[in-house]
Amino acid sequence: MTAVLGKDLVGLEYLSPDQIRLILDTAEPFKEVSERPIKKVPALRGKTIVNLFFEASTRTRISFEFAEKRLSADTVNVAASGSAVQKGETLVDTAKNLEAMRIDMVVIRHPSSGAAQFLGDRIRSNVVSAGDGKHEHPTQALLDLLTIRDTHGRIAGLKVCLVGDILHSRVARSNIWGLLKLGAEVGVCGPATLMPRGIEELGVCRFRRIEEAIEWADVLNVLRLQLERMERGFIPSLREYYRVFGVTQERLERAPRQLTIMHPGPMNRGVEIDSRVADGSHSVILAQVTNGVAVRMAALYLLAGGRPELADAAKGPAGGANE
Fold first, then answer.
1. Distance set, CA 73 to CA 51, 59, 60, 123 (Å)
2. CB-based contact 9:170 (threshold 8 Å)
3. Is residue 137 among the annotated active site residues?
4. In Å, what is the CA distance from 94 to each residue of 56, 109, 289?
5. Which domain holds residue 117?
6. pLDDT (tens digit, 9 = 90+) per residue, 265-298?
7. Which of 58, 87, 102, 257 is catalytic?
């Protein structure tokens, strides 16, 4: 049976609105699994999934591992550090050697844009992007979408602004595609040096001041400022960035409505976001983390050929995987 998402999940740009909604809807029944005493269901029992991480990413890797184990898949973690990759083996050689061991799925994170698609075109196993270069980070955007829908009851018609380093952010790209496809209005805000040229051509509006973005938005998704950008001259200093673009309690108090505050993590407190905001009543940052496991469970289940209408049945009884 062909999966309703196709063979691979490498980005949201080429998914239809219905496919995106399907993943979000399928994630809903899987949320309950994490609340059980035994957090495991038999949906992917017998499947082998390899997590192939060429970049360090504790948060995303652990979230995928939780998702895989809660679906009862067998998992193998491969890090580029210390692997044959450092000895000159190519990405395709690595994947084909893994595939020769009869794996079913590869979750890949890679510093090169397009690596997930490149791999998906060359191996039979399903490929899921956990972030590739400046291209996309589809499951992060999906968990952001689910969190927005949980909080507001809808996505269509909401005004969502992405704040920070848009230029280098794969999270921003996936969010823009997903939000626009589901009917949200999308804004971006950040320094001119961290803004892609012609960003408005994607159908987003641009704000040059954080105060304008806060006045306009229903939701702020605050992106992490990678500290190495300062060393390359993209911003004058961290203190200056916080002064001009930091999402602070004082700025939120002047907002015309209560905003929802999101952050893909890990956070630089006191750089892009005030701790009082990150930990305050506006924040849904921890809900994002919780939703990340459910969304990844849904994506893996659907790619493996799971039928969306049977997601509830796929959960099985509590503790079913261990019976």
1. 12, 19, 17, 20
2. no
3. yes
4. 18, 14, 30
5. 12-136+291-311
6. 999 999 999 999 999 999 999 999 999 999 999 9
7. 87
90 and 172 within one domain: no
Q: pLDDT tens, 52-65?
A: 999 888 899 999 99
Residue 51 in contact with residue 78, Cβ under 8 Å?
yes
Has 60 been annotated as catalytic?
yes
| Beta carbons within 8 Å of 240's beta carbon, 6+ residues apart | none
Catalytic, 257? Answer no
Residue 317: inside a domain: no
User: 173 and 237, same structural domain?
Assistant: yes
90 is catalytic: no
Q: Which residue among 26, 40, 47, 60 is the active-site one?
A: 60
Active site residue 109: yes
Residue of 61, 70, 137, 168 marked active site: 137
Predicted model pTM: 0.92
Cβ proximity of 218 and 159 under 8 Å? yes
Among residues 109, 173, 282, 296, which one is catalytic? 109
Q: Is residue 322 part of a domain?
A: no
